Amino acid sequence: MISLTTGTFGRDRELAALRAAVAGAARGFGGCTIVTGAAGIGKSHLMRAATEYRATAGVSIAFRAAFELDRAAPLITLASTLQQLRPPEPAIDWLSGDPGSGGGAFGRRLREEDAQYRTLERLGAALEDYAARQPLVIAIDDAQWMDELSALAIAELVPALASSPVRWLFAHRPAPAGTPGLQLMERLARDGHEQILLGALDDDAVRRLCAKVVGADVDNTVLAVAGVCDGNPLQVEQLVRTLHLTGQLLVADGVGTVVGEELPSSFITIVDQMLHGLSSDTQELLQAGAVFGRPFSIEAVAELLDRRPGALLKPVKEATTAGVLVEQDGELEFVHDLVRLAVYGTLGGAVATVLHRQAAAIAREEGRPPVEVAEHLLKTGRTGRREAVTILHESALEVAPAAPSTAADLIVHALEVLGEGDPGRVALVADAVGLLASAGRLEQAQDLGETALRAGLDPRTEAMLMLGLAEAFKHAGHNGIAVEYADQGLAVTDVPESVRARLHAIRAHARFYHGDLAGADTDGQAAAAAGLATGEYAASVFGLTGRSLVAQAQGRLDDAYGHAEHATGIADKVRGDAAHRHPRIWLGDAQAALDRFDEAEETYRRGRRESERLGTAWSTPLWHYYHAALLTARGRLDDAVAEAEAGVAVALNLTAYALAVPLLGQLTRLAVLQGDLPQAQAHLAHMHRRMAAGTTCAPEDMYWPEGVLQEAVTGPEAALSTLCDLIDALPARPVLIAQDPTTAPALVHIAIRAGAEDKARTVVAAARGLAERNPGQLSLAAAADHAEGVLTGDPWLLRGAVERFRRTPRRLALAGALEDAALNTAEEAQGRAWAAEAIAIVTDCRAERARRRLEFSLGGPKAPTGRPVFRPDSPLHQLTPAEQNVALRVAEGLQNRQVATALHLSRHTVDSHLRKIFTKLELRGRVELANLVQRDRLNT
């Protein structure tokens, strides 16, 4: 909304904080400030005053208010804000047009290519490049109305650009609840960003505001009447203007006094009296303008009133002089939406119907978003409502790829308009359930779906409804419920085979995570066959990746690789939806299990590039999860932590909580490896909170992290209690050992220390059986020798484990074997050599818990730390080697994505490293970091 037309009163502290934020950007600092307050409390005025401070702050400003109609146009809020940059920035010209609207070329690309993820990556790169040349402030007023894709983009861009001189300013009301914008504001507040809460003006500020409006001092009669406004500056200003306009406030001898008896008692009566003080032509102009619900041109309101634009110049001048309308960027806008709503309330029903019908036609002519047309039609009677429902349905399907929650809102709105008994509901229900489900609104989707089923649906619609529910519950981690819905869908008769293929594919994955390996493999096989036969290749690919998961869980590693390779071949050949299933996620996992680490690294790199090209954001947390596992196996623990942390952040941004759970498990294990037990406990607690909502995952992701932490904190008995079922399942489901061979000796150690030798023997037998089923796999044979050597104390088995692990890329596995071999050898010199080698490995990998254990139990020598990069007294020594690498490249002037390319990391991982660097060193921007590196770097 437009700010007050008067000065700032009673907000000196808040304005100083906002101006300091703007000035901070000029000094190279990023960050985010959130202004919260009720409607009319002065947020917009403060935002305008702060951003007009740019003349002395030396930053570029992009400023725009969001509008309620933004919600149906993906990315319109952020894109339109950035288009306000002055001077214009050519690097973001590709955002031109009207994002998400019917006419914008950018909006069409966003929908046609399903490329929102790539769009956000490109936008982030453009802003990072811009900020490297010129500090930037991005200010969005009425942020509660921003569209869903803008909210998603900002949730990612705020932390991603935290190291750049980009300052975000947001102002919002604390209502209405549940909008994407308000959810974003709440999240940013939880993340600890600066908040400014605006309350009522004090009496002195009210007096000064009244005096400014009147142009003279005011007496107690004015202050007494202003008291009905409860310190709300908008209402105070409108009240005083209205009293002045209607002759109820007179100025005599330089003092304003209220006279008369019929004084307004509420904001609505204030506006009503204000209207009566204006000419009839101006009243008509304001009532017509109130219908639009957004800024409007003189030409548009003239067409609405069937008048010549020139005939409205005098009423426009009267309305702006009275402070009811303001001119902004060549259009007219009410001084505040509260004023517009009060004016709109003076319209009669018949007049409003006529005006909305004409406004719908004008919106069409101007190429406004279809939802705006529909909102007008909904207020024009039965005929208009039918057309509006069609528009809402079409719009929902159109915006769904970029804004699923918005799409769900639109189609639910359409169903509400139709009513329960309308025959047109059937065509909308399946789409509505699918959209609600994809937006994560599972309970609402389930309720609507069950209601529709009771009313009766045709077989295809019923099966599609079940498919939508199954997919939604599967991706939310509610695998048991997903299996039930897939069962019901497959039980429907006369369902096309292509739909059955999709149902089998989703059931394969749900069954796998629900523990039914045989059923999952059967479904995966059925999906692959039916998909190939019907051309539903995405189902084939997804079914084959399900079979790959099953094969790996059962210890058939060559089969796991074969299924994933087959799926990847199909996706590469047919592209389309099949490629969107990203089988390289599982291909890389299968390659890693076979110790083909370099191939897995390249597979993940290629898969990530493809994901960015296709814009499939859902896959991002999975790439982080599997790459973090590979980095852990390589012994690059710092990079693995950053990778997993980035994965959690992305999963939470996407509300993909089922994908966050295994990543949190990874972080728990990594924190234990690094000796940071409080951090491990925090990660595990976070994982438990997510699971308390019903999210499930593979038992290995659930129980192993908890057992590892319990062994470190409470002792082996508690750990064994948690891990018993996992151990008992190992003979049939040895996936824990297949993915990470170090778990076999670790489990044996826990079992022996807990006095459960039978459990230790179970682990050894499972490890040996896995190695025998996969001849030639050195790491599995080494793990079996290592586990049995720990159980029996046989030094030759442990020596064999060392030699085998030495021929694999698994550094931490080698260190573990060296440690146990050193403890069990009778050759003192050999033991010291093995201990020294183990300490060198774990020190280099930053496996602090193992290093401390080795130095304590074996008395091994401290490993050399390598050639120092920084001065001995430099605070940069607090950084891990991985963080030092990032710091050095940032100091060279590289942007985050360039650092990511140079270090072969994801951009999210670099962002994570930088956030830790700034926290450890208490820095606020890249310039400070570069100066510190320049000062403390040695000439090496």
From TrEMBL:
GO terms for biological process: regulation of DNA-templated transcription. It comes from the Bacteria. Keywords: ATP-binding, Nucleotide-binding. Pfam families: AAA_16, GerE. InterPro entries: AAA_16, P-loop_NTPase, Sig_transdc_resp-reg_C-effctor, TPR-like_helical_dom_sf, Tscrpt_reg_LuxR_C, WH-like_DNA-bd_sf. Residues 872-937 form the HTH luxR-type domain. One of its GO terms (cellular component) is cytoplasm. PROSITE patterns: HTH_LUXR_2. SUPFAM superfamilies: C-terminal effector domain of the bipartite response regulators (SSF46894), P-loop containing nucleoside triphosphate hydrolases (SSF52540), TPR-like (SSF48452). GO terms for molecular function: adenylate cyclase activity; ATP binding; DNA binding. CDD domains: LuxR_C_like. This is HTH luxR-type domain-containing protein. The lineage of its organism: Bacteria, Bacillati, Actinomycetota, Actinomycetes, Micromonosporales.
